[in-house]
From TrEMBL:
Superkingdom field: Eukaryota
Ranges where the KIB1-4 beta-propeller domain occurs: 106-373
Pfam family, one: Beta-prop_KIB1-4
Name this polypeptide is given: KIB1-4 beta-propeller domain-containing protein
Length: 410
């Protein structure tokens, strides 16, 4: 007769804790370095036990994010510059987007935003980038995706999206609770959306905001805590969108208060940058500690202004700060208080406090048209390739894997 109160040998073996810590550290590191390991896989390995956590280096950022189109699907990966290795970004399977499934119909995917450990993908009709069908917010850490309709209704292309968790909804960190702002139709139209509140996210509707005729925005920054989005126009004006919440009236885009009464936006810039402003093709806007900043990059050849007293080199970068207490209210600064800013082709700037030796303080990190990372010392404005020893890498935009390091307002 078998005593059912006593576990069998097989059951006792199953109940005993697995000796994970006995695995040789070199073997563990070799497994973790296998091609195809995702960020989520790597984080899970480090969470198994204290010994494994000590053996595996912590995930380090910044990373370069790339979206690769295969024969039947699109997949995303990041290259961690401090770790000098690639991680795949899985969402339950290796394919982020399968163009042949559901509504995609052999579609084209591209990156249109990155922040808070997530990134945004626009799904365009095949053969054209002028028609966006869907927007997908991807959280590779949790393996989740949020699908949204297109603010353009399939009639225009989405250029860029900024997004953050919706602080008015609970639970705040739920993957469906997001507030996003989109620039679309050649950067001339703006829309926003709340993805929370129940129901399917695909059924949520974007709200279009009226934009003054002729306005075209080079960049935008999102202050989620203040429910504000800031827009930098091609002519140098700065506008603000106050997002409606509760009993607030409908959202409108207005010039910054100090700029409302001067029709000439260049007067807001200190000399000689008032003259330089119209010549700057590449401009970005971001927030740091509640203050607005701009980054200008001269994408033209060497330029002489006036009688030659002011020169701009090709790829020279300027950082300007907005000061409400002075006029002109925009002037150049030569540091960022020990922070650095990362500029992406299709994502808004990210401000970080350097925590790894590879990232220098008071620098601008950007990506050239070939996808090569560059670094600019703000004090000199000069840029050079950001190439680490034995490391050549390219990417479409920057990726930071934690909420606390991706805020645009550090």
């Amino acid at each position: 007769m078998v005593d059912s109160s006593t576990p069998s040998a097989s059951k006792r073996h199953a109940m005993a804790p697995a000796p994970w810590s006995d695995l040789h550290s070199e073997l563990l590191v070799s497994i973790a370095a296998t091609d195809g390991v995702s960020l989520r896989d790597y984080a899970s390995l480090r969470a198994v036990c204290t010994t494994w956590r000590a053996a595996l280096a912590p995930l380090s950022y910044p990373s370069l994010l790339s979206l690769v189109q295969g024969r039947r699907s699109h997949s995303a990966s990041v290259f961690s510059l401090p770790m000098r290795r690639t991680f795949h970004l899985h969402t339950g399977s290796s394919a982020i987007v399968d163009p042949e499934c559901n509504f995609y119909g052999r579609a084209h995917a591209r990156l249109v935003g990155s922040g808070n450990g997530r990134f945004a993908i626009a799904i365009d009709a095949r053969g054209t980038r002028s028609t966006t069908l869907r927007i997908i917010l991807v959280d590779p850490r949790a393996g989740n995706m949020v699908q949204l309709g297109s603010p353009a209704g399939g009639k225009a292309s989405v250029c860029k999206i900024v997004f953050a968790s919706n602080k008015s909804l609970n639970p705040r960190n739920h993957n469906d609770n997001w507030r996003a702002v989109a620039l679309y139709d050649h950067n001339s139209r703006v829309a926003y959306i709340d993805t929370g509140g129940g129901g399917s996210t695909e059924d949520k509707k974007w709200t279009t905001v009226n934009v003054a005729d002729g306005n075209c925005y080079d960049d935008m920054a999102f202050n989620a805590e203040g429910d504000r989005a800031y827009f930098l126009s091609s002519c140098g004006n700065v506008y603000v969108l106050l997002m409606p919440r509760g009993g607030r009236p409908a959202a409108v885009i207005e010039p910054l208060a100090t700029l409302m009464h001067d029709p000439n936006p260049t007067t807001a810039y200190a000399a000689p940058y008032d003259v330089v402003s119209p010549k700057m093709v590449t401009k970005h806007i971001f927030l740091r500690q509640g203050s607005l900043y701009q980054v200008w990059k001269n994408t033209n050849a060497n330029v002489k202004m006036g009688s030659g007293y002011f020169r701009m080199s090709a790829d020279e970068i300027f950082v300007l700060r907005y000061d409400t207490e002075r006029w002109p209210c925009w002037d150049v600064v030569k540091d960022l208080g020990g922070c650095s800013v990362f500029l992406g082709k299709s994502s808004s700037p990210v401000v970080v406090q350097p925590v790894v030796p590879e990232v220098r303080a008071d620098c601008v990190y950007w990506i050239d048209w070939l996808g090569v990372p560059m670094v600019c010392d703000i004090a000199t404005g000069a840029s050079k390739p950001w190439v680490l020893p034995n490391c050549m890498c390219k990417g479409d935009c920057w990726y930071f894997g934690h909420d606390d390091t991706t805020s645009i307002d550090v």
